[in-house]
Amino acid sequence: MSSLSRFPPAFTVRNLSALCATALVACVASPQVWACTPVPLSSGAQGSDLCYGPATWNEPTLGGRGLEQNFDFYPAPTAALPAPLIIWAHPNGMSKSLTPGRDTYQALVVPALAAGFSFASIEFRHPVTNEVEADSPGNPGVPHRDIARALQFIRANAAALGIDKRNVFFVGGSRGTLTLWTALQDDMAIPDSPDPVARQSTRVNAVFGVNAQTTYDGLEFANLFLVPEDRSIAKAAWRLEHPKFAQFGSAIQSVAASSPADPPVMLRYDQPFVRRLITIEELESMVEVHYPDFGLALCAAYRQAYGSSSRCTAVADPGYATAGPAYAGYIDFFKLHLKGRPAPVLPALPLD
User: Which of 8, 83, 270, 325 fits a disulfide with 118 by CB distance 3.0 to 4.6 angstroms?
Assistant: First the structure.
């Protein structure tokens, strides 16, 4: 995976120059992207590129390709309607399109539809990858809240899509685990908004993540995972490379004993857990954005908030490097957290 298909914790400065140069060239060379216009959906809407928002951007992880706020929708069989919904957020450098017969489609969409779930695959911006699109008074929530807005739009069109708004789940891989940060925020709904989309809840029943980043803050990363003598160097490099790092956010810091409670989470990593502090030199030999102890740190935050590990599970296994094993059983996990529907009796989940 190239340096442009990842958003590194960035303890060196050289990647920043390459990223900026590539992004600049891409922005100059790419054709203009025309924004889609979100409108209420017609009954039975499905297929690709359904518009949920008007924003467009040039994606540096795809060579500056122009993208827009849209989603693909795969409806559950008619007999299951209104159906629970799974929202998928893709990894970095991969488009949202899931092709029938390919590994990711087989691992995600096929079992979802077979179990009576509808499935949506969304295009979105990320707080680190798309950090140049910072929050502003005229464009609040950028680039954190694309996933939340997509969820709100889908809920606002639940009748047209045949969706059960009580039962919505997030699944994501790598960059797509922005779903995790989204799910752990206080509800972003604005009940008295004149915008019917903004009035919708952003809370979900449960989250399944593969190679999840549980903090985007390099300062927090250094404090949690690096040996003390290397932290100041790492933090200085992070501040230099990401002057707007304060906007990035942390799922770990977002966990809190609240009502309603934070959603149950299952995390899988394709590197073995480290379970000790490491040096910068050691980190450079790892895929740092998939650092497995991210999951242990999040589950520790859950234990502190809720007094047990029952709401957060993290598992590490090299077999999770491919989609089939990585997402195996994710539907069974979601079934455990359906509301108002019968759930199967399954074995107890491992704690870590």
Answer: 83
